Amino acid sequence: MLASGLLPWVLLRPNRLAPGEYLRLPGVWLAVALVLALLPALTARLARNAVWLPAGTALVLGVWLLGDRTHAALIGQAPFARASAASGVWLYVLGAAIAVYGARQAASTRFSGLLAWAWLLPVALLVGLGHLSEWSVLVEGRNEGARWVQELGQHLRLVGSALGLAVLIGAPLAVWAAGRERVAGTVLGLANAVQTIPSLALLGLLIAPLSALSFAVPALRQWGVSGIGVAPALTAMTLYALLPVLRNGVVALRGVPPGAVDAARGMGMTPGQRFWRVQLPLALPVWLAGVRQAAVLLVGVAAVAALIGAGGLGTYIFKGLQSAAADLILLGAVPAAVLAIMVDALLRGVEQLLGRRLGSAA
Length: 362
Description:
The protein has 14 helices and 3 strands. By secondary structure, the protein is mainly α. A hairpin with a 7-residue loop joins strand 1 and strand 2. It is flat. The two termini are about 45 Å apart.
């Protein structure tokens, strides 16, 4: 965070593609930012549970300065001028976020840990009230409008569909392989082999066979099966998601205590009842960890699928790369990263909830 004071905070460009001028923070704001950079470390020595306050304040200040400085930079500029975040903003916000995370980890009470999330409200207010409206990424987002929402929806559909197919295919395979060592070795070996193929290469390898299949069976074209588009993207994503679902499923089912299964057998339960009432509930938290890993993996792989016309947020990433427009890259990359974090947090919460319930039941 201190090093960010040596770096520019805003890049002002006459348009989206042209090179621009780097602007630094005014002296007063630079002094305030540097003081807040030091406060979390100083507060940690005096009151560890209060570190969230200066750390969160620094994070909010970084976001506020981004909006304030981009707005100030565009005063008197042409309508198509762009003001984007420079390296100083990213470094400062990253440092503040690490300080917030450290405050949450160091909190000795649950209440102090919850307070570490207090920065979310003022940041949400800044975004909701339009304080960041002049930031180039949000300007590009407004220009894209409904198209961006459409691509976000497509990204979610790709991830949800591939994850659902991976669970539908991987769950029965994991149950079948859990009690059969040879089957487990074969199934997991094939899934591991798929993971070694780069995602872009796998998408390319699927174009030819799916094209041939769609020509051989014309009825498949009505279902959207072709060499490019959703079909190869969904196929590749499903194959990538199989390994964590399979691996965690096999490990989870094998990790069920034999005593619990024996007790269920002694109570006269059928094999089906033992699976649904004993084995699956005990294995579910570990199995869900694999589903969570697959979901986060798919959020990233779905971005690559845009290269073969499947849509999604990767559309903006590759469009920005082609035109050397960093704003468009961020318009696709930042939401994808936030989406991955949200999916991970949601499924992790489900895991912890199930773990607590099973623990209390035991």
